[in-house]
């Protein structure tokens, strides 16, 4: 009996030690994540905030000396930087809610055409430098989803294509019915993503190494957030090569049906 009790006590002790090690490992990972987040935020916020402050200061002090084109350009730069910061904050809030399990999906049937249209209204002003087209293979296509979050996914994917492709590039959004799912893809004809990076693009804080991207380096939250949102909807997201060049991001969400109440 004493031997059995001793074995039980040893097993319990080992189990407690294992739990403590796992808790310590989880805490260390959380601390590392928090440190990376703070470091990335402090780095990425500095450039747009400096630009906004500098342009606003020049407008306040030298407005009478500046011509209309210069004023318009500076106002446009302030708008672009503030829009980028707004999108960053939205991504940060969404990531925080998802990671903490506080994101509650409001799933309802929505017209995919309306979701895409709403997303394009919030795309960066720089889309005017690119050719963005939309192709719906099915009319009146419905998806059962949280429209606000899927709009954010499309915004992130199109903004990503705009950022990593040169001016004049083509970006195509395609929607279609795929068995029991709605499939939405965002394709571009840029340089593409190397195979070695395809598995990393959905990792948090990974921002790639494409030299075309401007100096405001992304936190690497956009694609990570997209994956979290699509997974929460029970769908999948993937990246593939476009032909002859470029990248295609494709995700699926459950199809929706109109509920008729008699």
What would you note in describing this structure?
By secondary structure, the chain is an alpha+beta fold. It is built from 6 helices and 7 strands, in the order ααβαββαββααββ. It has 2 domains: 2-99, Signal transduction histidine kinase, dimerisation/phosphotransfer (DHp) domain (Helix Hairpins, Orthogonal Bundle), CATH 1.10.287; 108-254, Heat Shock Protein 90, CATH 3.30.565.10. It has helices at 2-62, 68-99, 112-121, 147-163, 195-198, 222-232, and strands at 108-111, 131-136, 142-145, 170-178, 181-188, 237-241, 247-254. It has a 5-stranded mixed sheet with strand order 2-4-5-7-6. A hairpin with a 2-residue loop joins β4 and β5 (181-188). The longest helix has 61 residues, at 2-62. The radius of gyration is 23 Å and the shape is globular. Mean pLDDT is 82; it is low at 211-217.
